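Supplementary notes for students who missed Thursday's class. We covered one full example, reproduced here. Read the sequence, then the structure, then the short commentary at the end.
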Amino acid sequence: MKTDDIERFWSKVDKTDYCWIWKSGVFKTGYGEFSLNNKPFLAHRISYQILVGDIPKAKELHHICNNRLCVNINHLQVVTRQEHVSKTDHSNNGDNSRVKTHCPKGHPLSSDNLRKYALRIGKRSCKTCFNEQNRKYQESIRNKNR
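Structure (token representation):
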């Protein structure tokens, strides 16, 4: 990254005593947006790359401060996708892995009962319920074709 880009990046950050707040463009998801060569990037990822280096493959950055506009590298934790999903607070009640331990039908939301596709897109979905729903759907198709 060029020196001018780095200077431009830091000119858009307000370093408070705790969080370093991104004060420019924001994605619909609430994360800071920084453009490089007319391409949008997540501001917290750029901060990490400037101050620490590349983010390891198959890893993501989790905001331990729960502030999506924070670019303070001390508030960014390198985690796997599954760890990130379990740490993300979707309910404002704390750690999502503690809040949602079972699906609405009572099946445990543990690693062996979570759909891998859902985890990749940032959701936790019960594999047992999905398989049951899929089986019923396939059965209804077979019954229509008789």
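Commentary. DSSP finds six helices and six strands in the chain. Residues 1-79 form one domain. If anything here is unclear, bring it to office hours.
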